[in-house]
Specification:
The complex is a heterodimer of chains A (265) and B (310).
Chain A (H helix, E strand, L loop, with lengths): L1 H13 L2 H23 L14 H9 L6 H16 L2 H8 L3 H38 L7 H29 L2 H21 L11 H9 L3 H9 L10 H21 L8
Chain B lengths: L7 E10 L2 E11 L4 E5 L6 H8 L7 E6 L14 E4 L11 H12 L5 H8 L15 H13 L5 E5 L7 H16 L3 E6 L2 H5 L4 E6 L2 E7 H7 L3 E5 L3 H10 L9 E4 L5 E4 L3 H10 L6 E4 L3 H9 L9
Parallel strand pairs in B: 3-7, 3-8, 5-6, 6-7
Antiparallel strand pairs in B: 1-2, 1-4, 8-9, 10-12, 10-13, 11-12
The chains are: A mainly alpha (265), B alpha/beta (310).
Organism (chain B): Streptomyces scopuliridis RB72
Keywords (chain B): ATP-binding, Nucleotide-binding, Transport
GO molecular function (chain B): ATP binding; ATP hydrolysis activity
């Protein structure tokens, strides 16, 4: 098992993808949060509470939640490239217990996703505090709380990487898998939310779990407003994190039981 | 070291893809220390059979074992079995060295193995190049290097000559012979008999997923009516002598006179023809066993099998 994990790290570092991923993390983290902080949520369209309020701070960092499709897509790419480039043949010859292959990938990309998340949130923290200092605004959230929030966001990225890997193992076709993962994160859940009744399930859907992990409930609140339902109550951050990890594990387990057992021809 | 006997044993192996039966109750064995040719026309089920032996395809029925164990039961399988299946199974942006290092690590093989194999397979100069820039021949050699990482006792190669130039094919033959001489089990599939005829010791021939013939190549050759070409200034007299035969009843089954005046004799070996000619004081200028009819046998045995599933 250790050999498999080591081999997966080698595979990950053999192309430049990791470099581009970290660059993306810095741009999305530092760049985006820095920019949003510099502009200020009160100047958004529609305007949101300012940075001197808790909601204002949360809304800036909450935007990072919309970038989870990046680590998810990276995980999906990594898994499906085994099938696309037919390396699965060699991989399953060297490791005939296919669940071990997936486990090694989950471990490797769990770590890689966490590194991605930490780089992104470190950038976000730097951008946030830098832009705040430049504007001379005192944030509506204590520094310790902000750091905790950033760590939760880093964890969110790691969990989404795992989800991406698991979905890749489940769907196998690279293009289809990417379309499903990105499509769901972008639109799928919003569409689901428009179905009466389904929106009650929102806390239990990946988006809702992400919201509880990132404490960014703006979207949920707006939806509740527009659909004139009572505001949904989200899970606790820990609950949301565990639920997301659970989705990844279920997808991985189904992948091991069905598509990964299929013939490699 | 007392080496276990890594023979491949295929028993009642069957694979159905939906309504198509690709492999049908196939049984044969592949012995160590020899090169076995796995022959059959395209679509006969060779690839599917090899992938079942390697645990990549699950059989509908039957078993395939290597040294008495199924592939999935082998501990550290890459130290026991190496296989070359796809013409290209590399990440296009990995270098040859990256690729080998990944699988070297996965199999837990010694670190020096990668450079050793790059050298041995003549890839050292291209080790840093991305695999997408590789020619088919280089890809074949990189596949072979991957298969050899664990110094396996058993080697399976699916159509390894595809994309190799004549020089590469000659090299591959020498290479496989060395491996077999070291006591390894070598199974090489091909749909072109002449390609493997010179190197294989045993053959397993299949058609439409069923066994047609299996055994040492020499014994196969005994089945066919061998033709001996005889040139003689006394051709007409010799023809009568050969048809009459010896006193104990050994005679030619047929003797035809070709348009070039040479005789084509069936049913007698060269030694018998020479002895008969000598006894009758007839001259023989040329005596030659024609070596083409194995291909004929292959066509006859595998005839009428186009258009099957793989």
């Amino acid at each position: 098992m250790n050999a498999l994990i080591k081999a997966e790290f080698r595979r990950l570092l053999a192309t430049r993808m990791w470099l581009w991923a970290l660059l993306t993390a810095v741009v999305l983290g530092g760049g985006m949060v820095g920019l949003l902080t510099a502009v200020g949520p009160e100047n958004f369209s529609p305007p949101m509470p300012g940075l001197e309020t808790e909601e204002g701070v949360l809304s800036v960092f909450g935007m990072l939640g919309f970038t989870v499709f990046v680590p998810a897509a990276l995980g999906t790419l990594a898994m499906t490239s085994e099938y696309r480039h037919r390396t699965a043949t060699f991989t399953f010859l060297f490791a005939p217990q296919r669940w071990q292959v997936l486990t090694a990938k989950l471990v490797t990309f769990g770590v890689a996703g966490l590194v991605y998340g930490l780089v992104q949130t470190a950038g976000a923290g730097a951008g946030f505090f830098g832009a705040l200092a430049a504007r001379g605004v005192t944030p509506g959230l204590a520094t310790g709380t902000v750091i905790e929030l950033l760590l939760r966001l880093a964890l969110t990225m790691a969990v989404y990487t795992l989800l991406g890997v698991a979905m890749g193992a489940l769907i196998r076709n690279q293009i289809v898998a990417l379309a499903v993962v990105i499509g769901y994160l972008y639109m799928g859940e919003l569409i689901l939310m428009m179905i009466p009744g389904v929106n009650l399930l929102y806390p239990l859907l990946p988006g809702g779990a992400t919201a509880s992990l990132t404490s960014f409930t703006y979207l949920a609140d707006v939806l509740a407003d527009e659909l004139s339902t009572s505001p949904v109550s989200l899970l606790s951050p820990v609950g949301g994190g565990l639920l997301l990890a659970g989705y990844a594990l279920v997808a991985a387990a189904v992948a091991v039981l069905v598509p990964m057992r299929r013939d490699v021809v | 070291m007392n080496q276990p006997n890594y023979r491949i044993e295929v028993t009642g192996l069957t694979k159905r893809f939906g309504p198509v039966t690709a492999v049908d109750s196939l049984s044969f064995s592949v012995e160590p220390g020899v090169i076995t040719g796995f022959l059959g026309p395209n679509g006969a089920g060779k690839t599917t059979t090899m992938r079942m032996i390697l645990g990549l395809v699950t059989p509908t029925a039957g078993t395939a074992t290597i040294g008495g164990k199924r592939y999935g039961e082998l501990r550290r399988p890459s130290e026991i079995v190496g296989a070359v299946l796809d013409a290209s199974a590399f990440h296009p942006n990995h270098s040859a060295r990256d690729h080998l290092r990944i699988y070297r690590t996965m199999g837990g093989h010694p670190a020096g193995r990668v450079e050793e194999l790059l050298d041995r397979l003549g890839l050292a100069h291209a080790a840093h190049r991305k695999t997408r820039t590789f020619s088919t021949g280089m890809k074949q050699r990189l596949s072979l290097a991957t298969a050899l990482l664990g110094d396996p006792q058993v080697l399976l190669l699916d159509e390894p000559s595809n994309g190799l130039d004549p020089e590469g094919i000659a090299w591959l033959r020498r290479f496989l012979r060395e491996l077999a001489d070291e006591g390894r089990t070598v199974l090489v599939s091909s749909h072109v008999l002449s390609e493997v005829q010179q190197i294989v010791d045993d053959i397993v021939m299949i058609r439409r997923g069923t066994l047609v013939a299996a055994g040492p190549l020499r014994e196969m050759e005994r089945f066919r009516p061998s033709t001996v070409l005889v040139r003689s200034p006394d051709a007409e007299a010799l023809k009568k002598v050969l048809l009459r035969g010896t006193s104990d009843g050994v005679a030619a089954q047929s003797v035809e006179t070709g348009h070039d005046g040479a005789l084509r004799v069936q049913g007698l070996a060269t030694a018998q023809i020479a002895d008969l000619a000598s006894a009758a004081r007839l001259r023989v200028h040329e005596l030659l066993t024609e070596d083409t009819s194995l291909e004929q046998l292959f066509f006859e045995l595998t005839a009428d099998s186009e258009g099957d599933a793989r």
